[in-house]
Design brief:
heterotrimer; A alpha/beta (110); B alpha+beta (297); C alpha/beta (113); B: 297 residues; alpha+beta; CBS-domain; Heat Shock Protein 90; 2 domains; six-stranded antiparallel β-sheet; three-stranded mixed β-sheet; 35% helix; 23% strand; C: 113 residues; alpha/beta; Udp-n-acetylmuramoylalanyl-d-glutamate--2,6- Diaminopimelate Ligase, Chain: A, domain 1; five-stranded mixed β-sheet; 5 helices; globular
Chain lengths: 110, 297, 113
Amino acid sequence: MLLREVIDSLNLQVISEGNLEVEVRSGIVSDLLSYVMGNAKEGDLWLTIQTHMNVVAVASLCKVAAVIVTSNLEVNEEVIDKAQEEGITILKSSLPSYELSGSLYLSGIR
Amino acid sequence: MTMDSEVTNKLGPDILSYSVEKVMVRNIPQVTPYWQMRHIKELMRIRRLDGVPVTDDEGHLLGIISISDLIICIENKDLEAPVSKYMTTPVKCLILSKTLIEALREMNRFKYGRLPVVDEEFKVIGVVYWWSLFAFLQEALDTSMVVKKTIPSEGVISYTYQVLGRDFVHAGNASLQMRKSLQQLSIDPKDLRRTGIIAYEAEMNIIIHADKGFLQVKINSEKIEVTAEDKGPGISDVSLAMQEGFTTAPDYIREMGFGAGMGLPNIKRNSDIFQIDSRVGVGTKVYSVVNLIRRLK
Amino acid sequence: MKLNYIVNLIKGRICVCQHLESIEIDKAWAADLMSDVLASPTEEALLITSLATPQIVRTAEMVGMVGIIIVSGKKTDDTILNLAEELDIPIVSTDLSLFETCGILYDHGLRSN
């Protein structure tokens, strides 16, 4: 499934746009950056409620397809600017992490 | 070995004869010699580790890479280099059957801040850090909190709990004790939940940011007042601190699941009255009121 | 949904609990951060987390969670198990990731609200 299709089907808001034409196969949900560093696979969708600057660094290091900030949390301008600079896609969802993981899982992302 | 004897006297010999397993940090990422040094930099920063063992692909111990190795690498502006270029070999290590006192001795003798722990096949299973050893001993010495129940005037009950800064081991204890005390009164579960959240977040703020403080709860027939007061750095911009997601907590605290920057907003959301008074270099006082749905008899 | 049914779905191991079949679960919440546990919209939810610490047990107890699932095969040591026993909160551990655990339970109809 292409990232763009995921965005459309789950009604995600794009707040920093990187490459939306990448193929997404799997997901990871975690708010612990070290766990993500150790376990994220390239091309993963990363669901988190962390909105700190270091999220961008970890996303870039792990080459995730996109970061999805859940529970409708605000991401500040500095973080968005940094993400755009690094070409990292950040998406936002009003659903909590649990519900969004469930919806992604149902749509075939494992 | 003055340290050994001092600790032994306070604790008795049994705690120090525990296996190093008790104090070793597990879940250390498996670093191999072909990792780049910039990954080590990120790893050390985020996990707040000052050294990690280096292993082959099967997990056998090869060496150690420490913060001092990293500093040399940064001075050389050589962060793309592989770990193998900067790691220290051979390395001292502990086998799992060693005791705490043996670990203490080794660390004292060689002035090591950390020692990898290996099994009989020489595979790394964890690391004993000076701080992990220290934290364990500190807990064993028992930093138990003071709980005080007073009846300041008729119809009012008050509980006070002491909270120590950086005491993550006991984090949440004071709030939980408070909740237990409140459960004995016939308080509506919704009010109990709100009060619990307020107390918990306030307790965490003290633990994360301050040196010490206390948590006090006062109950009368109509309302619950929660006061959290600390001696600590204070907050320089309160309105910024009230924003969801704003945090000054370092990475290692967030890795434990604290300091997400939702504490003060969470307290405010659950309070009927919310006041905060903070002075930089002095401390912070948070005051909350929960009006009870059901009056207490 | 009964807790023992959930344990089967996620190939879980029961660490603390005496009466699994009597625990009814109808909501779930996934969180790694204490504040986010507190932010769960309801009491009596099942907490799914990758933190295996006594603090997460205390936090869950604070908001009246009915059980905790610890994911990613994280080791649960005696401190956490003793505390959970004392507070009478069931703990189940699974090797599945947080994402997979949420996905499977959601797929079987468990929601947050």
